[in-house]
Design brief:
41% of the residues lie in helices and 18% in strands. Strand 8, helix 10 and strand 9 form a beta-alpha-beta unit. The chain contains 15 helices and 13 strands. The strands form two sheets. An eight-stranded mixed beta barrel has the order 6-7-8-9-10-11-12-13. The chain has a five-stranded parallel sheet with strand order 2-1-3-4-5, with helices on both faces. The protein has two domains: 140 residues, Response regulator (Rossmann fold, 3-Layer(aba) Sandwich), CATH 3.40.50.2300; 208 residues, EAL domain (TIM Barrel), CATH 3.20.20. Helix 3 runs parallel beside helix 4 and helix 4 packs across helix 7.
Length: 405
């Protein structure tokens, strides 16, 4: 059984790379981990004779220390060890290096252990007794895959593309680092009539390079079943500076549709609930509300607390009105695809004029997102949009940026 690690980004701690001379003279560098001293000596002797540079460790803790000090091409570890077992070691190694292939060996193979090994990203799962030739073949293959993975990671970095870890252990490590470095940027929303600040949208940011944008963090949270954890942190962090800054105006906070199922969303004890009358909760028109069986009573409860509801990304290619009808929003946010170049596009102007007019007839405020030019701004004002948001006025930043009209 195998799990590809080729899509992961190398986020290792500053461990030493093997020198070019070492790499050219050997088949690769190997960390061999087992509490069976006799087996370690035997395997190390065989693999060294076949051209590998072998470092040994008798415990998981010792292995983590070795992997922190030096970068290896492959880790070969027993699963059953006192203290830290092979699966736990794999998870610790992913905190240091998302790419290094880990080959696990066991003398007591079970389906559940094999499945766990695969889930957490073991490159191979071998059963004892293993032959010298079979171990050599697997280690040699792991070294080749590892080198290819690093090449692909460098290519992804050069091209600026995403490289989310594909195995659970790597994804857990990335997600934990992302939470540790999570911060909120605030993007001003401007009143078209007063040319002043109406409020700010809180936007998720993180300094974790393997999860480089909000979509990647949300996808990781979905895969790890940590959406509630991420949502709670976002809501608490978003509210914190607004609680003590009344001049910030209205706070717009994005919700994942599954956040509606989180009981803390309607808890009166959270920072966000305490300023509910100054908060607009955004739910994208793309959201599949059928994931939440009782949307209407949940939304009603939020309104009772003082929250207002916005439909985000309106007009982004979703023709149905199911979400719109279920949410009955107080605010609608026009997708930036409608805003971009609207000053030179008569069709977009007709669509935005109609959407704006109908929304306002139903008592809804209209926000135009993605305004980047003066011409777009002036066209949207002429079409009747109430609120404007975009880089023309300010970029998302720590609280609270001033605007330029």
């Amino acid at each position: 059984m195998t799990v590809s690690v080729l899509r992961s980004t190398d986020l290792g701690s500053p461990a030493e790379e093997p020198s070019a001379d070492v790499l050219s003279a050997t088949r690769g560098t190997l960390l061999l981990v087992d509490d069976d001293e006799l087996l370690v000596r035997s395997l190390a002797r065989v693999l060294r004779a076949r051209g590998f540079v072998v470092t040994t460790a008798s415990t998981g803790t010792e292995a983590v220390a070795q992997a922190t000090a030096q970068r290896f091409d492959v880790v070969l570890s027993d699963i059953s060890m006192p203290g830290m077992d092979g699966i736990q070691l794999l998870r610790r190694l992913r905190e240091k290096d998302l790419l290094v292939p880990v080959v696990l060996i066991t003398g007591e193979p079970t389906v559940s252990t094999a499945m766990e090994a695969v889930e957490y990203g073991a490159f191979r799962y071998l059963s004892k007794p293993v032959t010298n030739d079979s171990v050599t073949r697997v280690v040699d293959l792991a070294v080749r895959y590892h080198r290819m993975a690093r090449i692909k990671a460098r290519a992804a970095e050069a091209l600026g593309t995403d490289a989310m870890p594909s195995d659970r252990a790597g994804l857990e490590a990335s997600f934990e680092r992302a939470l540790e470095t999570l911060w909120m940027a605030y993007h001003p929303i401007v009143s078209a009539s007063t040319r002043g600040i109406y409020g700010y949208e809180a936007l998720l940011r993180s300094r974790e390079p393997s999860l480089p944008h909000p979509g990647a963090m949300i996808e990781a949270a979905e895969r790890l079943d940590e959406l509630h954890t991420l949502g709670r942190i976002i809501r608490d962090r978003a509210a914190a500076p607004v609680v003590t800054e009344p001049e910030a105006g209205i706070l717009f906070v994005n919700l994942h549709v599954r956040d509606l199922l989180d009981p803390t969303l309607t808890s009166p004890d959270t920072a966000l609930s305490r300023i509910a009358d100054r908060v607009v909760l955004e739910i994208t028109e793309r959201a599949a509300l059928d994931e939440v069986g009782d949307v209407r009573p949940r939304i009603a409860r939020l309104r009772e607390m003082g929250f207002r509801i916005a439909v985000d990304d309106l007009g982004a290619g979703y023709a149905g009105l199911t979400s719109f009808a279920q949410l009955e929003p107080e605010v609608v946010k026009l997708d930036m695809s409608l805003v971009r170049g609207i000053d030179t596009n008569a069709t977009k102007q007709k669509v935005v004029r109609s959407m704006t007019s109908l929304s306002q007839e139903m008592g809804m405020l209209v926000v135009a997102e993605g305004v980047e030019t003066v011409a777009e701004r002036d066209t949207l004002v002429a079409l009747g949009c109430d609120l404007l948001q975009g880089f023309l006025f300010a970029k998302p930043s720590p609280p609270f940026a001033q605007i330029r009209w």
